[in-house]
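#random but structural
TW: two for the price of one
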Amino acid sequence: MIEDGQRTETSEAQHALEQRLISLLKDYQGSTADDVESSLELTRARHIEYLHEGLRERQHHIALGCSRPWLCYWITHSLALLRAPFPPSVEPIDVVNFLRACQSPTGGFGGGPMQLPHLAPTYAATSTLVTLGGQDALSSVDRAALLGFVKRMCKVRYALNMHAGGEVDCRGCYTAVATLHMLNMDKAAVLQLSGMAEFIGRGGVHAQTYEGGLGGEPGNEAHGGYTYCGLAALVLADRVDVLNLPSLLHWAVHRQGLVEGGFMGRTNKLVDGCYSFWQGALFPLLQQCICVMWALLAEGSAVPQVSAAVLCTEEENAVAEPPTCSSSGTTEGSRATNVPDRPLFNTAALRLWLLQCCQNRRGGGLRDKPGTAVDYYHTCYCLSGLAACQEYSGGRHTDDFPLVDPSINVLTSKLDAAIAYYGSSAVCELESGMDQE
C-alpha cells in the first residue's frame, strides 16, 4: 500500500493486518527460504472434509440461492485439485441432475432451478460438468440452445449482457468465451457479433485503464477479477493484440503485497486470498502471450496488429530482448507451459501467505485473510492460486496439484477430455439428428 500520510479506514485496516502478521510469521524470523518452504503444509484431509460437508449440506445453501452452480463448481474443482473423491453419501450424478434442473429450455443455466439463464452460472455449471467428466455429465449440456443464448446476449459491438437486460462488463466476455471453449464450439461468431476485443482492449472506448489493468467496463478502476476475465477471454479468442501488455504486466506485478506476500485486487486495497488466483493466474497467461509473440516476431511471421511495440514501450523497443522461456517439465498432461527462468512474482511469498495466513488448519477451508471466516469461494480460489503458483514456479513449490489450464481454471486433463468428447463424430451426428427433429 502506498503511504501518503493520510489516515483512512483502509490504511488503519492495513496496519491492523500487518500487526496480526507479526504474530503469525514470528516463528519464521531468521529462517532460510528452504526451511520456510519445508515447514509449510497443506492440511489436505481437513480441507477435504470441509468440502465434503458442503456437498452433503448443499440443499441448505439458502443465502446463495442464486449462485448454486457456483457452489457446485467451487467445491468440485477444489476436490479435483486435492485429488479427492466425493463423500460416500453423494454421487457425481446427483450434481449432474441438479445442474440439469438449472438448465433453461431456451439455453444456458440459471443460478438455481427455474431461474433465468445467466452467463456466470452458465460458466460455473459447464466447468462443473467438465470437471466431473464422463458421458452423463458431458451429454447433459444442450449445446445448440446454449449457443443461441450466448448470441442473444451479444450487445452488438459492445460486449455481452450477463443476462437478458443485464449488466455489460468483462465477465460476460470471459464467461461466454470460456464456456464455448470448453464445449468445443466456434467462438468466432460471438467474438465478431459482440465486438468484445475492442470493448476490452484498444479502441475508442475500452476497459484497459491508464494503470494497465482492466476495469469491469470503460471508465472503471482496474481490478484483478476483471483483468483476469479480460485477458483470459482475449487469450481464448486469440486477440491479445488489442492489449497494451507491458502496461498490464507493470500493473499486475505491483499488486503483490510487500509485507503480506498475497495479492490485492486494486491499488491501495488490502490483500485477499482469492486474488492469489485472479492475479496469480495472469502471469502464466502473460508469459504465454509474450513468448509466443516474440517467437513469431523473431521468425518474421505476420502477427495481426502486433509488433514489438506491443511488447515494450517505444523507448524500450530499441534495446528490447526476448524473454527466456522454458518448459515447465511437468509429466502430467500433454501441454508444456512457458515458465520464465525468473518468475514475475514472488511465488514463495505467495505460498507462505496462503498456507500460514489463509489456511484454517483445524477446521478446514481457506479464507480471505486472518481474522475472517472460511468459505467455499475463498477455498476454491486460494487452492487455485496455490496450483498456479506451483505450475508457474516450474515445480519449485510442490503441493501435489494436478495440472490446471490457467485460462479456464479446470484440470487440463478434464478439459482435454471434454474438448475431445464434444469434437467426436458420434456427438456431432447425435446433435445434428436432434436439430433435424
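TW: number two ↓
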Amino acid sequence: SSAFRLLGSTQAGSQGGVQACVAMDALLRSFRGLPPQRMLLMSSGLATTKIKKAFAELLRERRPEGDPKVLYVIDAAVGDGHDGRQTYNAFVSQMTQFGVTRVVFVELRNTTQRQLSRMLQDVDCLYVEGGNTFYLRYYMHASGFDDLVRPLIRYDGVVYAGVSAGSIAAGATVATAFWKGWDSPGFGT
C-alpha cells in the first residue's frame, strides 16, 4: 500500500510525477528501515466513502489488531467559534464506525508540552480538526506540538489526518489559508 493517499482530481499529467515521488519516498524509507509516512489531508473531513475507506485502511495499517488510539486536536474549530465539547462528542460518535474507542481530546492552547507528551504515548493517529488555520498554527507551535509529533509521523508511522486547517498546517507554510479571507491571520501577534 502507498504511503500517501491521492484522492480527488489532479491536473492532467501531474499525477504520474506525484506518484513517482511517493514511490521513491516509500522505497528510500524501506531501505532505511523506517515505516511509511501515513497522512490523509482532507478539505471536508470524512465526508465521502472513498475518504472513509482510506482512513480506515490507514488505521488498520497502523494497528492491525484494532482499537487504535486517536488524539483529536480541536483548536482550529474552537478558534473559529465552535463549541469544543459538542464538536468532540460528534467526532467520538463518528469514530465508532471505524472501531475507534480510544479518543483523547486535546485543546493545545490549554495544554503544556509535558501533558501533551503523556497524551501522545501509544498514539496511532493524530486527527487535526478544521477551522481557523492561524489560531491552530499558533497553538501547535506554542504548545510544543510541532516538536513532539514530527518524529512520530516521520519515524514511528503515526497517522496524521488533517481537515482543512489541519491539512494546511501540515504543510511548509499556511499561505494557502490566505485565499479565502476567513481566518484572522493576526492571532498570536
